[in-house]
């Protein structure tokens, strides 16, 4: 099965970019972006904690909903910092094939 998250994140990114500069009264994204990156970061932190709590209690439905909130707020925070999911994808690709254990050990040697 071809994954659906890439196209979904692309479409979400396009919607967020299109909202930039819109009236904050009519767009939550425009409101967040006009409030500044610290507000965007605060919202991502809140949604991350909510997703973690849903996962910890084993609530699959809530975890899925909260995860969508996390992706949305991460997309807004990336936009607020001039970054994108493509940048994140490049970083993930860079890490492919490097074990997390080996990477941690290499950091300790530095
Ligand atoms: N995916 C989302 C999305 N996920 C969550 N949210 C909003 O994020 C907010 C967070 O929920 P909270 O309960 O924390 O809201 P709150 O307490 O009112 O927030 P604050 O007062 O703290 O800012 C809610 O208003 C949600 O509706 C989203 N808002 C927008 N999108 C996407 O962005 C697109 C553009 O939306 P607008 O910018 O609103 O047109 C939409 O078509 C969607 O694709």
From TrEMBL:
The keyword Cytoplasm applies. It is an enzyme of class 3 (hydrolase). InterPro entries: HisE, PRib-ATP_PPHydrolase-like. Belongs to the PRA-PH family. Keywords: Amino-acid biosynthesis, ATP-binding, Cytoplasm, Histidine biosynthesis, Hydrolase, Nucleotide-binding. This is Phosphoribosyl-ATP pyrophosphatase. NCBIfam families: histidine_hisI, PRK00400.1-3, PRK00400.1-5. Its EC number is 3.6.1.31. It comes from Parvularcula lutaonensis.
């Amino acid at each position: 099965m071809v994954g659906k998250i890439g196209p979904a994140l692309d479409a979400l990114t396009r919607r967020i970019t299109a909202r930039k500069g819109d009236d904050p009264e009519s767009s939550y994204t425009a409101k967040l972006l006009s409030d500044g990156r610290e507000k965007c970061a605060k919202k991502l932190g809140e949604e991350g904690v909510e997703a973690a709590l849903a996962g910890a209690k084993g609530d699959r439905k809530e975890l899925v909903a909260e995860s969508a909130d996390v992706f949305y707020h991460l997309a807004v925070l990336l936009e607020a910092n001039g970054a994108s999911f493509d940048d994140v994808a490049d970083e993930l690709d860079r890490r492919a094939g490097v074990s997390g254990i080996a990477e941690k050990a290499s950091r300790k040697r530095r």
